Amino acid sequence: MKNQTISAKEWTNENDLALFSHCMTLADAEIWPLFYALHRDKIQVQRQKTAVEKLAVIIQSTFKLSHDKGFALMSLRDLSEESGISLGGIYAYIGSKQQLALMIHQFLPHVFSQTIHLDYPTVSSGKKKAWKNISDSQLMSDLHRMIRGHIFLSEILRSWFFFAYMEAKYLPASVREVALNNEQVTEQILYSLLAQIKDRQLIAIDDVFMATHLIKSLLQTWYLKRAKFSKQKIHCEQYTAYIESIIFKGI
User: Which residues contact 153 (CB under 8 A, 6 or more apart)?
Assistant: First the structure.
């Protein structure tokens, strides 16, 4: 099967959700084949078209049940009834409830890495970046990319982000570890960026650790409190611009 990838070539960090979505090809028609491609070694059904269609139903049903009763209380029988897929079919696609949670948590960093493309040291990789080869303008551009890309992804994949955040503490330890590592990776990228920006005095940053977690909290607020922003008719480009205005004044 041809590898499924996301193209990020045309998005050059503009504060434009529609352009981001168009460039990243993140509509449902692209998301589900990408999910299947990432996890096809775990899925017993080999016919791609059927698998992609059923996985879409299973994941969407999982998000609905998670919202209605909580993932911890959801059984695979509940999922079978909600999705209209036999219990045997459910097992063929996701193996177990724990594996289902793991597949979801593994998918988000996969999409993030393919779209945001920030090659900075992370908790898991241990790579070192030659900071001296990165210009000041590139650092600032990458900070825009991190903030805008995260908010735009969470807008497009809102149910995924909400599930990952709200259900993590109720998951088995092995899955919680993956979720925690995902958090640490994005925090380390942001911390690395801010540390360099502080050292070069591009933005007045008093405490890099505190600034990192303040920004991370603001990024999460967009999808966790989405209904409140919608009620006030605040769209994500407005929210992104406001966050950036706060950061660039100094934090």
Answer: 26, 111, 112, 115, 116, 161
Flag whether pLDDT at 35 surpasses 60.
yes
pTM of the model: 0.87
* Cβ–Cβ under 8 Å, residues 163 and 182: no
Range of the domain at 181: 17-249
CATH number, residue 95: 1.10.357.10
**pLDDT confidence band for 125 (50 / 70 / 90):** very low
**244/239 Cα distance (integer angstroms):** 9
3-state SS track over 106-144: HHHHHHHHHHHCCCCCCCCCCCCCCHHHCCHHHHHHHHH
Please tell me the predicted confidence (pLDDT) of residue 29: 75
Token pair in block for residue 9: 């070539």
Residue 2 falls within a domain, yes or no? no
What does each C-alpha distance from 223 to 59, 65, 151, 172, 216 come to in angstroms? 18, 18, 8, 24, 12
Contact in structure between 198 and 208 (CB atoms under 8 Å): yes
Residue at 5 is within a domain? no
pLDDT digits (tens, 9 = 90+) for 51-101: 999 999 999 999 999 999 999 999 999 999 999 999 999 999 999 999 999
11, part of any domain: no
Q: Is residue 239 part of a domain?
A: yes
Single-letter amino acid code for the residue at 229: F
Cα–Cα–Cα angle for 50, 56, 62, nearest 5°?
A: 135
Gap between the Cα atoms of 112 and 37, Å rounded: 16
Give the total number of structural domains in the chain.
1
